[in-house]
Every structure is written in structure tokens, then in C-alpha cells.
Amino acid sequence: MTAKPLNIVDFGIACSLGTSKDEVWQALISCDVSGITQKKIYGMEYNLALLNSKQLDINHISELALESIAPAIEKAISKFGKKRVGVLCGTCYKGSNAVVEALEIYKKTGKFPDNYEFEVQQTDYPAKFIAKKFGLEGITISHSTACASSASAIMSARNLLEAGLCDAVLAGGTDIISDSIMFGFSALEAISPKPCNPFSKNRSGITLGEGAAFFLLTINEEFPCDIRITGCGESTDAEHITAPRADGEGAKNAMKAALANASLKPEDIDYLNLHGTGTTLNDAMESIAVSSIFPSTLPVSSTKSLTGHTLGAAGALELSFCCLALSCKNTEKFLPPHLWDNVFDPELPQLNFVSKGTKSNRLKRCISNSFAFGGYNASIIVENA
Fold first, then answer.
1. Catalytic site includes residue 60
2. What is the pLDDT averaged over residues 148-175?
3. Residue among 15, 89, 92, 147 flagged as catalytic
């Protein structure tokens, strides 16, 4: 079913590449990996994509992403009222670091720290913080569909707007790296000892990152926009709790649904941002799914080699990269590059990976993929208004 387009009034970003649209875009197209640093956790060294080379509180990261769009949010509040602006935040955050630190103090002293609050370990903690920050009293929901959480939040925003339950929605995601996340992925043997190398024959896993990205969305035509969301598709295959379905059927269903939702054909898409984690299973599945739908000439890239895998924030962050590419006013627009060792895996369908400095003179529509543990799959299409 074709849905009414979602107007992107504004969007904000914070990740290892920077904390403003221009800063992030310049670092992205120049393949700046200075934000990826080595950090020792309990005696083990990991490559992490961090803001300012240090780990920040999740609410601080959210604030950095929201700072530039605060005027647009205030304008929406003035227009619609605080009760008609919703907050949908995707995250995998469970406050585990704060809990562990509090428990250590409890063991030593017999009581929790005075500043420790139980709600810090609740999944809705970041969403409630954002609502409180702007004094918003509309629907506030946390989405936690693993690595597609923020993509899921954006899709739900469309549902709320179409149902008339909100007039504007602040939707996106935020996430930080916690010790439990690190050890969980380590136990799965999914973390690469080197910066991730998506779709390469030599790929060996993910690099974790932290970040946030939020979109102010509305279907109200009084808010003009340059970019809009025209298609959303999601599916669940529930093949495995941590592994994707090998034949890519779930991913294919999400991409096909997004195309149908936007009344588009595969050849109408000009660029695809891959989920591209750098793990053996994801990259194999996704290359099969993408090649079965889109022309072999479609430019594609995974930007996780530059930002790390930002977990619940990844869907919104990578969609924002598509929006940055579309925002370019020049006739020829840069495409987000695919940073890797250029060693094709002969066992995978070959995709048209974007090299540094690649431009397109026909960039109008982009699709961004997000795939998650538990078999949840999401694809979102954005285009120039």
C-alpha cells in the first residue's frame, strides 16, 4: 500500500565522524577513520568508534545529536503544542555499566550510590530524557528491536502520524557501547580484531561504535522539506536468535515492501546503504538479497567501516547519511564511500561498491537497510522532495 510521504523537517547527528551535518559529511566522504581508536576493557583491546575518543553518557550523545534541530523542535511545539509532538527512540541501551558500577559500590558499602536511579537501566530511559528535555507530553515510546531499533522507531512514527495520534514526531535512535555488549559480541566471536572490512573475503566481524541520529517528521504540509521518506518496509523471519536467514528471504521481503510502499521499481533507486556489518553471515545474506532485487550497477556501500556498528542508532544514523548525500546542491553529488580492502569474496554475488570520491549526477532516491537479531528486517526509502 502506498503511504503518504513523511516530511523530514530537520535531522541531527552525532557519531565518531562528528556532531554536525557538515562535519559528519566531510569526514564521511573523505574516509576519515580517526574516530576509531583502540580501548582496553578488562585487559582486552578492542577497536571502537567513539566520539572524542572517549565513551560518553547516552543522554550526552542524544543531546549532541539534538542540538542543531532544537529550533525546529521548538517550532513544532509552537505550532502543534507539547501534547501533539511524540518521541520515538530506538536503542539497545539497558544501563548495564551503571548497574555494575552501582552493584560494586553496594558490595563495598552496603548501599547504592546516592545518585543511582533504577530507571537508568530501563529501555525507555533515553526516550523519557528526550521528552523531558523539550517538555514534550505526546506519545513517548522506546523501540528495542536490536540493531534495527531506530529504523523501527521511524516506521512507527509514520503510523502515529497517519493515525492522527501525533502532528509531529521526533524519531531516531541513540546507543553507547557497554561492557555487556562488548562481551556478548565477543562470546559470539563476532568482533573483528581489526577495523571492520564489510563484504571482503577477509572480513572477520564488526567494529562497535556509539552515536545518535534523530529526525523531526510530520505529514503537515505547512512544514516544507527538501527530503522526505516515501517508502518503509519491514519483515520478520525469526530464523535464529542471532544469525540472519542465510538465503536473505527476510531481507528481500523488507526491501520489496519498501519499494511497493513507495510505488517504485528497483531501477528507480540510485544508491543503497547496506547494513554491512562485516560479519561472515550478514554480508553473505545481504549480498544475496540485494543482488536478487536490484540491478548489478546500483551503487552500494556500508558506512560501518567509518562509524562502527552503532547498534540501536544504526538505522537512523545510516539513513541520515542518505539524506546528507541527497542534500548536496551540486549537479553531481558525492556518494557515501565503501571503505574496505577491495578483496572480493568469490563466493558472494558481486555488488557495485562505491569508492572514495565517487559522484552521481542522478541521485534522487536512496534506500537504507537495517537487519537485526531475532530476524527483524527494515528498509527505508528517502528521496528529494
1. no
2. 97
3. 147
